[in-house]
Amino acid sequence: MPVTIRDVARASGVHISTVSRTFSAPHLVNPETRVRVLACAEDLGYRPNRAARALITGRTHNIGLIIADIANPFFPPLIKAAEGQARHRDYHIFVADTNEDPMAEEELVHALAKQVDGVLLCSPRMSNSLIEQLSREVPLVVINRQVTGLPCVVMDVGQGARSAIEHLVGLGHTAIGLLSGPRGSWTSREIRRAAGAAARAGGAELTVLGPNPPTEHGGLALAEHVQRSGVTAVLAYNDLMAIGLIEGLDALGVRVPQDVSVVGIDDIALSRLTRPKLTTVATPTAAAGRTAVDMLLQQDTDAPRGPRGVGRGTAVGARRTTAQVMLQTELVIRDSTGPASGAGSPGAARVGPDPHRPADPGRPRAATGGAVAS
Amino acid sequence: MPVTIRDVARASGVHISTVSRTFSAPHLVNPETRVRVLACAEDLGYRPNRAARALITGRTHNIGLIIADIANPFFPPLIKAAEGQARHRDYHIFVADTNEDPMAEEELVHALAKQVDGVLLCSPRMSNSLIEQLSREVPLVVINRQVTGLPCVVMDVGQGARSAIEHLVGLGHTAIGLLSGPRGSWTSREIRRAAGAAARAGGAELTVLGPNPPTEHGGLALAEHVQRSGVTAVLAYNDLMAIGLIEGLDALGVRVPQDVSVVGIDDIALSRLTRPKLTTVATPTAAAGRTAVDMLLQQDTDAPRGPRGVGRGTAVGARRTTAQVMLQTELVIRDSTGPASGAGSPGAARVGPDPHRPADPGRPRAATGGAVAS
DNA sequence: ATGAAAGCGCTAACAC
DNA sequence: GTGTTAGCGCTTTCAT
């Protein structure tokens, strides 16, 4: 039923190898022949079978993308960007969801390995050593984690957390809570480290609560804990948790930001829609997706021309250069943070019809990270 | 580098076909041999090359999933469910995003056709006839659209819209606006049709505004229009638009639900987090994803044993039975709808610390659709 | 510039 | 129960 290279060959009166060349090395075929073949292919509706091609070239033109949780709004923009970039380069993306399960991650890498030219490992929860091991099976690009020796793209959440803490300290907060993320998260460790240092530098005390599931519920469940802990400000692992926490505090009658300030991380679309609008550290997720695809593809196209043209030179020291890209983050100050304690006038705040603040006056930026490559 | 079936054969001292059988028809091989082969395969790290297998079996064990916009929070749960169900059945999912572009849809079907055993076409914007045509190239299951002759899974948005309108009419609204969705959306047409009928039946007037992009911005942009139109209630094509509209109205000083009631459709996670919490028609998106995968796979496994065992019987009338599944929807009443006009006491509503309603008292359900097959 | 032939990794008759 | 053989659709030497 499906039309193959042979049908096209027959129709255009050439050998199949000529048809093949027409598609994979057009310059090697006579322009006239090429046109004729192309025409036949066109109206037979011929499409090269990529699987068959892959069998011999070793290139599937597929990329695997392993995600902790597609339903977490942090990821879709990243997926979308990766998919777009990949398609733009004539690649397709396999998406797999691990449900935050480290076991699933490993299994999925194995399952995908043969079908793809490389895998984008997003926010992995497994160990570094396992990642390294897997990278010997299939080219890997790690997102949201630094693994030495492997290409990575991370957001500078350290800088982001620092800015957030400085922002809170600047508002007079001296007892700050940190809702950490899931166990195994590089990002969570980074945040904790940076936040701890920044708090110390600012003379504030940091109370770490966690680890927690990186979900709205994870935040919500901590509301009472936060209330009892006596902190006046909280930095959450991500926006979802921050939003959940605000919900939870609200239910306890604790007002944000009057009683407690809350800062999130990610700047998902949602954070502009909740009330109060969330102060958060914006992470460039789309850029991360695009960059990761580019890095993988570059690595991919570099590979084949490795030991070629090299006479009997030194033992091919040209190990692939594995870049580590760090993307900038930016603190976006909205309405969920305010001066510490007594400053607000309880009861008067947020009354009915028009509690409209200057409404997001052009995204005041506060800090940035830097770009680094190694 | 990669270990093939031949390596395993050599290691276990059998012919490659035995190894092959061990994986694709274990019952045909001597238990002892099987164990030995499996052991060798195990510690050589052998994984069957699915592409090579597909070349001969015609089954790739891949499914294509074409989505209008991954970043639209309506879709991730569907993707996640589909992916999970697929993996559970040992299939992988290719995800592609069309950016709401009908052209991209067609191209993507073509691009995926050879790589997958079937395609899930989600919320297609292209024409029915084109869909039918494409279905001759690759098995299709259509989601969120009814196409006669093709397997479909749709949500009963008609029933949902009806319930929504009845709810509004019951609250005394007689001038109701409908924010329609994107051109080419089956769902949008269904909603419009059902909402129109329900409004007529309830003695209310329905003003249709659209088509519109199915995004937050699409709703936000309509705020002024809604305000001027004089309607006291609005049903939006989806939650995103409803939320955008509320934002927009809020900016104009129009209060929801005191001045205008707003109902969304979908019940995305977000709609529980905005203020006011959104009254909306819940659609079972995860179920839709799972069901679609099941339908595709069933069709897929049915296909091969078609003209087999049939003596010289009648001309194989056994055309595949294409089911059309309709999933129930449910009106979830929250805080964005209220009595028409004068009923609310402006200014007193929603004051500071504790404007807590009975907080979602167990999801009052109001209506359901039915399940149908053809 | 084009044809011939080998073979990618695997499965599927068909023998034995 | 297992080995033999042919070939899926395609690319890629190697001749011509």
From TrEMBL, chains A, B:
Keywords: DNA-binding, Transcription, Transcription regulation. Residues 353-363 have a biased composition (Basic and acidic residues). Residues 3-57 form the HTH lacI-type domain. Residues 334-374 are annotated as: Disordered. Residues 338-349 have a biased composition (Low complexity). One of its GO terms (molecular function) is DNA-binding transcription factor activity. InterPro entries: HTH_LacI (IPR000843), LacI/GalR-like_sensor (IPR046335), Lambda_DNA-bd_dom_sf (IPR010982), Peripla_BP_I (IPR028082). The keyword Transcription applies. This is LacI family transcriptional regulator. The lineage of its organism: Bacteria, Bacillati, Actinomycetota, Actinomycetes, Micromonosporales.
